[in-house]
Write a structure and sequence with these properties.
Elements lengths: L4 E13 L2 E8 L19 E2 L2 E3 L8 H13 L5 E8 L14 E10 L12 E4 H4 L11 H16 L4 H15 L11 H10 L4 H11 L24 H16 L15 H12 L5 H10 L3 E8 L7 E6 L3 H4 L12
Parallel strand pairs: 1-6
Antiparallel strand pairs: 1-2, 1-4, 2-3, 2-7, 5-6, 8-9
Length: 338
């Protein structure tokens, strides 16, 4: 294998449409090289986050590069862009397994207002919770948690080598997934995905082991049974990057009015509430939420009304930019019980 290192850029482009959080995906072109195929390889996962190698001769900064790459692939004009983390696990890009360079990618979060996709790639909007169905608690505790995830994690816990390891696994699962009466922490998004990956309960874990086994042509394919699809898989470590983006978004709901980047200049309080709930995955108390937005100085009335509501006209508000400087810490999401 080559010792070369390739720096790449990857971006989770998020919008909210009618209460549905969505992310832009493009088509991954990876396929197992012909000389390593056995005829039984799992289908490659085509959903990927927009990304490309960083071109240092073309771009002065990484953010210039990620904007150009993302806008070129999606046809969208990015609004808010924030660097997340650098992802550099060995073999995170399967090309490395088959002689390609070691890949290190800088992940970004971008927020846009909903709009049609274009650009150079095969970009599509996907429901973000298609990838993480256990994260959406807006209607109820997801049945997937108790029906599939908890029993599967129980088997993983029981398979630990000794009592201490079993206890540590059990505590991690309990805290991450709110099991056995533990509270659900909406910000543990990445921890939950990483735990499912470590336990071999997501398709990516099986796929990555299988691909690694193919490097040695004399070695048998990875053993075990392909796990049930817990959410829609992604190419490479796309779901890990997307989980990091969702966790960052949820964390910022607590102290920064980032949700306004996803709304039009004038909006109703109901539209604002839907966006907050879409990102948090939880319902908020309607009256408490509205009281906080107005008395906290986050929004101000425009003097106009939205008449196409099917009922009483709803007042339109706008974001007060001064709120960014006036409040450095605020609970932007009141609890559902007030």
């Amino acid at each position: 294998m080559t010792n070369a290192l390739q720096l790449g850029l990857s971006v989770a482009i998020v919008a909210v449409t009618g209460g549905t959080p969505r992310v832009v995906t493009v088509r991954s072109g990876f396929a197992v090289p012909a000389e390593h195929r056995r005829g039984d390889e799992p289908l490659p996962h085509r959903d990927a986050l927009p990304g490309a190698p960083f071109d240092p001769d073309r771009f002065r900064t990484l953010q210039e590069g990620v904007r150009a790459v993302a806008e070129g692939l999606s046809g969208l004009s990015l609004r808010y862009v924030e660097q997340l983390y650098t992802f550099g696990d060995r073999h995170r890009d399967p090309h490395e397994l088959f002689g390609g360079p070691r890949s290190v990618v800088v992940g970004y979060l971008a927020l846009v207002r909903d709009g049609p996709l274009g650009g150079e790639g095969s970009a599509e909007w996907r429901d973000l919770y298609d990838h993480f169905p256990w994260e959406d608690w807006r209607d109820q505790r997801p049945p997937l948690l108790d029906g599939v995830i908890a029993p599967a994690l129980g088997g993983w816990i029981d398979a630990a080598g000794d009592d201490g390891a079993r206890q540590r696994r059990a505590e991690r699962a309990r805290m991450a997934f709110g099991l056995d009466g533990a509270d659900w922490d909406m910000e543990r998004v990445l921890e939950r995905y990483e735990l499912l990956y470590e336990a071999g309960l997501v398709v990516e874990a099986f796929r990555d082991r299988d691909l690694a086994a193919r490097v040695d042509r004399s070695a048998p394919a990875a053993g075990g049974v392909m796990p049930r699809a817990l959410g829609r898989p992604m190419a490479r470590d796309g779901r890990r990057i997307l989980a990091t983006a969702l966790e960052r978004l949820r964390g910022k709901l607590r102290y920064r009015p980032i949700v306004f980047e996803l709304l039009p200049p004038a909006f109703t309080l109901h539209q604002l509430q839907l966006v907050v709930e879409a990102l948090s995955g939880e319902r908020v108390h309607k009256q408490n939420f509205r009281r906080l937005m107005i008395s906290g100085g986050f929004v101000e009335p425009t003097g106009c009304y939205e008449s196409q509501t099917g009922g009483r006209p709803a007042e339109l508000y706008r974001f007060r930019r001064q709120a960014i400087h006036e409040r450095t810490s605020a609970g932007a999401i009141p609890s559902a019980d007030g």
